[in-house]
Design goal:
Elements lengths: L17 H14 L8 E2 L1 H8 L3 H12 L4 E3 L5 E3 L4 H25 L2 H22 L6 H16 L5 H21 L5 H15 L3 H22 L7
Antiparallel strand pairs: 1-3, 2-3
Length: 233
């Protein structure tokens, strides 16, 4: 019998335990498509890869199953959740509802500091998008981070931690489908972000909601066209 690792609940920094850090890494690997849909998660290999005990790993995988990123198969273990056209559509609908609601709240409550955070987030996003449009595909990971930071900045003044947490989870699960499609949407997504930025600074909530609804639908169309994982599903 293997000796379990000690110290897994010690802090890696001021706010995160080792177990939390592994949870974040494993979740990232699923969302980014490093762990593919339907692949088995072999506990012994995962224990070695993420340097954590089997018991803690089981707890982490159970947490991920609550987000529908992992399937628990009883005595057969765990596997990365499959993808489907139905789930993609459901996630898109939910993201649209949550993000549009958050926009309404945020635009009504946002202050000058909120506007400044949007300007900064869009500046970073636009810089990465220019590199991607120039063919620097190595910037895709930076784009993923900056894309969420921009969308989050726009809804940050909603003052609802529960709403933002729910939106973050749905956003990531929707992002997983984009990463499996494996290609940047190009100038169309850049234009959407610029328009959304302008609507935010103008406090045009209705206009921003229209952009988000269209933005998400175009994302679905792109994924359906380019993702081999959705063929026949």
């Amino acid at each position: 019998m293997r000796e379990e690792r000690s110290g897994e609940h010690e802090r890696t920094n001021d706010s995160e335990t080792v177990s939390d850090a592994v949870f974040r890494r494993l979740r990232h690997d699923i969302i980014m498509g490093i762990l593919l849909p339907g692949s088995k998660i072999k506990l012994e290999k995962a224990r070695e890869r993420y340097s954590i005990s089997i018991s803690s790993l089981r707890e982490i995988l159970s947490r991920l199953s609550a987000e529908n990123l992992v399937l628990a198969e009883g005595q057969r273990g765990f596997e990365v959740s499959p993808v489907s056209r139905q789930e993609l559509t459901e996630l898109a609908d939910l993201r649209t509802v949550l993000e549009c609601h958050a926009i309404g709240l945020s635009f009504a409550a946002g202050d000058l500091e909120w506007e400044g955070s949007i300007v900064a987030a869009h500046h970073r996003l636009a810089a990465v998008e220019r590199r991607l449009l120039a063919g620097d595909v190595a910037r895709t990971i930076d784009w993923v981070r900056c894309d969420w930071e921009f969308h989050r900045a726009i809804v940050a003044a909603s003052n609802s931690a529960t709403l933002l947490q729910s939106l973050s989870s749905v956003f990531d699960r929707f992002l997983r489908y984009h990463m499996l499609a494996g290609s940047f949407r190009g100038k169309a997504v850049v234009d959407d972000h610029k328009l959304l930025f302008e609507r935010a600074l103008a406090r045009d909530a209705d206009g921003a909601k229209e952009i988000i609804t269209s933005h998400v639908q175009k994302g679905i169309d792109h994924i359906m066209k380019d993702s081999k994982f959705l063929s026949g599903r």
